[in-house]
Automatic annotation (TrEMBL):
Pfam family, one: LacAB_rpiB
Entry keywords, A to Z: Isomerase
Descriptive protein name: Ribose 5-phosphate isomerase B
Signal peptide bounds: none
Domain of life: Bacteria
UniProt GO MF annotations: isomerase activity
Family membership noted in the UniProt record: Belongs to the LacAB/RpiB family.
Species, as recorded: Belliella aquatica
Annotated NCBIfam families: PRK05571.1, rpiB, rpiB_lacA_lacB
SUPFAM superfamilies: Ribose/Galactose isomerase RpiB/AlsB
């Protein structure tokens, strides 16, 4: 069974999202596009909240969000108790977000990184495992009770 990935963002991330979907599907991932479905101006919370809800329900293992800076989508996703969204712009951050923080959503800044780098970050994020151990103790303290 292939890994199920949710993807979304806003108009600034639309082109990257469209191309990333094709590349990830070709690599064997099962992808659901939460929108937007064009590069027309769009409000990212309209796409981020449904994506985050679906991950919290266990419908998807991980998510990728792409907007201009990556900040808006990360902030919105992190409002959800079961989401740990990480804004990444290099491979080390993408790996550490998984290894140490058990991040389940990758936020990418389309206006600040190339598509090739965005794809590399997604590959690192999707293939890096959580280390657990002392990191699990910390991650278990993140959500507000």
């Amino acid at each position: 069974m292939s890994k199920k990935i949710a993807i979304g963002g806003d108009h600034a991330g639309f082109a990257y999202k469209k191309e990333m979907i094709a590349k990830l599907e070709a690599a064997g991932y099962e992808i659901k596009d939460f929108g937007p479905y064009s590069d027309a101006s769009a409000d990212y919370p309209d796409f981020v909240h449904p994506l985050a809800d679906a991950i919290e329900k266990g419908e998807f293992e991980q998510g990728i969000l792409i907007c201009g800076s990556g900040n808006g989508v990360a902030i919105t996703a992190n409002k959800h108790q079961g989401i740990r969204a990480a804004l990444c712009w290099n491979q080390d951050l993408a790996a550490l977000s998984r290894q140490h923080n058990d991040a389940n959503v990758l936020a990418l800044p389309a206006r600040f990184i190339s598509f090739d780098l965005a794809l590399e970050l997604a590959e690192v994020f999707l293939t890096t495992e959580f280390e657990g151990g002392r990191h699990a103790t910390r991650v278990n303290k993140i959500a507000c009770k």
